[in-house]
Structure formats: C-alpha cells, structure tokens
Design a protein that fits this description.
The chain has eight helices and no strands. It is mainly alpha-helical. The chain is globular and about 45 Å long.
C-alpha cells in the first residue's frame, strides 16, 4: 500500500479518501456495478470514522481503542455486520452523550460528541437493514453482496 494512502486516512477529510478510492476504481477498470456500490459504501463508513478520528475516539469492531484511522481499520469496519453494529453503537452513544460499547477509558468516552448518522443510516436502510431494531437480521443476499464490495475495496487499498 502506498504511504500516501496512510497519510490520507490519517489526516484528510471524507471526500479526499473517497476520491482516492474512486480513482483507484477507475484506473483498474472495475465494473460499473462495483463502482456504484463501493463509493457510497466507503462514504458511509468514513462519514462516521473521520469524526471519531477527529475526537481521538477510534475503536475497532471488538471495541478496543485504535490510535489512527488506517486502511486496515477501514477494512475491518467494511464487514456489513460490523457496520450495522457501528451504526447502532453510535446511535446509542448519540442518545447517551457518551461513547458506549467500547473498552475506551470512561474519561475519553465522555468527550464523545454526537455524530451525524444520516449517510450511514441511508446507506444501511437502502440495503434493508432495520434501523429501529438491532436484533433483526438483514437479508443474507445483502451480506453476500457486501462481501463482494469489501473484496473490491481490499484489492484497491
């Protein structure tokens, strides 16, 4: 992976990272089918990871603190089930006014500021994820589709 890719994830905004992913998609001549899925998926994930990065509250799907937003962390969250869990974790955190469901220090969690979940919610609801009840599953076909999206992203990064 190019060193500048790490720098983009570490320091820049959502659109700069999405532009990198989109450019890589175009240079590899991926099918438009994947481009139509990868870019919105990436934007949805980054719409919450970048604000967490800015608050120094990044964590992985296991709830452990992560110091830097990296392509590897992005890929960890690209699993559809992980992304759904992230959405509910942040929704509950927004309501509570503190970061929940992580092993981060309580003082750090109290520094949490509500994150706009609009892009992530729209994306997940487009793929029939119930945003009212976390216990409800989504169609397995959507999970399988996102495994394909995740594989394309892995090949790009």
């Amino acid at each position: 992976m190019k060193p500048e890719t790490y720098e983009l994830f570490k320091n820049t905004d959502v659109e700069s990272i999405v532009t990198l992913i989109d450019t890589e998609l175009q240079t590899r001549n991926e099918s438009p089918f994947w481009a139509d899925k990868v870019v919105p998926f990436s934007r949805a994930i980054l719409s919450v990871l970048v604000p967490l990065r800015e608050m120094n509250l990044l964590f992985n799907p296991e709830g452990k603190k992560v110091e830097t937003l990296s392509p590897e962390l992005f890929l960890e969250w690209s699993d559809f089930l992980s992304l759904k869990t992230l959405a509910f974790t942040l929704a509950h955190s927004n309501e509570a006014g503190e970061l929940l469901r992580t092993s981060l220090d309580a003082d750090e969690c109290n520094k949490y500021e509500a994150i706009d979940l609009k892009l992530l919610g729209e994306y997940l609801s487009h793929y029939t994820v119930n945003l009212e009840r976390e216990d409800l599953d989504f169609p397995i076909a959507n999970y399988n589709l996102h495994q394909g999206v995740s594989n394309v992203i892995k090949s790009l990064l």
